[in-house]
Amino acid sequence: MYENAVRPLEQLYKFKDISNRHVGDAEIFSKPMIVFMGPWSTGKSAVINYLLGTEYSRYALKTGAEPTSNSFTVVTYGDHDQVLDGTQIAADWAFSSLQKLGQTFLDMLKGRRLPNALLQKVTIVDTPGILENRKSPERQYPFNDAFQWFFDRADLIYIVFDPTKLDIGPEMEAIFDQLKGRENQVRILLNKADTVKPQELMKVQGTLLWNLSPELSTSEAPTVFVGSFWSRPYVPGSPTTLLNAQEEAFLEDLDDALDSRVATKVALARRHAVRVRNHAKMVDCYLTTYYNHKSFFSNKKKVADDIIDNPQNYHIYEGLSTLTNVSRYDLPDPDIYREFFKLHPLFDFKPLASTCSYFKGCPLDKLDIVIAYDLPELVGKYHKLLENRPIVGRK
Known about the structure:
The protein starts with a helix and ends in an 8-residue tail after the last helix. Strands 3-4-2-5-1-6-7-8 form an 8-stranded mixed sheet, with helices on both faces. It has helices at 2-12, 25-29, 44-52, 86-90, 103-107, 143-153, 170-178, 198-212, 240-259, 261-293, 300-309, 316-323, 334-343, 363-387; strands at 33-37, 72-77, 82-85, 109-114, 123-126, 156-161, 186-190, 223-226. By secondary structure, the protein is α/β, with parallel strands linked by helices. Helix 10 (261-293) packs across helix 11, helix 10 (261-293) crosses helix 12 (316-323) and helix 10 (261-293) packs antiparallel against helix 14 (363-387).
């Protein structure tokens, strides 16, 4: 599907020069990825250690009350314990596109290979703690772009809070903005719940949901797991029945996500196909406007530049949204297209209609069929296959 329907329009309209959200073999065939993020010192690394069963071993990730790392840490399977730097991680085909974020980012990227059964099925990413300061801190690398890279490839995103860190600062607001449209992948962990008196726990959870509500782009409440995700005994007097049930629900949710990884990969491929289609239609809309305003005696560069610099005067975005099934909010900003057309002159592209041929048909029609029918049908076949599995061997 990718080779026959997506790649032709990718190449014709230079999609890779307008977006760093690429989908290829590395994204489709790599292991499921789980990302842990949240304010500093809420227990992200401790939760990962707990999942891996490495809390009190030499394999444990570093934890502490103060911010312990400003790095992204990728934890993968290996036959023996091995610490990797960013350059070594980027040499892996699954992470090679991280090189586009620059050497400064690679210097802040860490890796760990561990001989762990869970890591044979999944890759886990520990992220730098988000600061709640009113003023966003200066990062020495493309911080939000790095998060976006991992979000685009994540099967699950766990945002970890604790009862003492419920505020949403500017940096966290920006992260939530990047998560819009991915609500089905996001889970909230309210960690260290046994440190709160039972009568206060409901109030704490309510405060967290209240703080999150302006950041959520859906009317549905997020999935929240309340617990103390470590193997230490609960604080005496804690609601142990509730916390144990929540921990079990958290682990079941994680297991279910791993079972649905094929559907997640298909959804990733479909999102990418939609972006490619939207970009092709956007370029075609610019191009149609250009031909409608160019005369025999006019300067083609001057006409193209005026359209590119002032798309609002030609109602390009409004026209595309009205005439097609493309949402304005799914399109890159005009500034991005200004830079794109500096690299690739507008008049060098072909109109979409001229890409069709009698024998091969139209690339756009093929892509629309893949988006509307082929990829959803693939998910349906996968679910039917799961339903028809024999009982033996199921979890």
